[in-house]
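HUMAN: Please help interpret these tokens:
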Amino acid sequence: MQQIQQIFDTADLLYSLEEINHALNQLAQTLTEHYADSNPLLLCVMNGSVITTGNLLPKLSFPLELDYIHVTRYGDKLVGGELDWLHQPATDLKGRAVILIEDIFDEGVTVNALREYCVEQEVASVSCLTLIEKLHDNKLAEQPEFIGLTVPNRYVFGFGMDYQGYWRNAPGIYAVKGM
């Protein structure tokens, strides 16, 4: 536990809660412009985007439905591996405007798989909102339609994103020192 505490104590704060809230306000305004008349289905991609989704929903003042999908590449590891599908939505996606809510867009492996899943379910449209885009040249997927903030190519945690299963509760977005 001491090593986990030290990660937080030495981390660099990239975005405060105030800065994150500002980005979420802008994302909510954009979603409202695009989806207010669409009865969209928002899919929270667990576990990382649960805080983003929870903070975004009250900012959306139009009818929508919410469900979740749980797929992971990381688990409690620092490097992504094979996709592990843990839960598929209970809501029928067919004919719906679906918005995937992601915590971070890194290489795009997960986003690609989620988009493919939605297409297989015969959605009317699928788009992706991500709170964070990691800036690097190793992208394997098309960029999400809605991006809140960008971070350098470092290991980040907080506001739903974890470090080895910990610090999803960190009050901001932090980068691990030296990573």
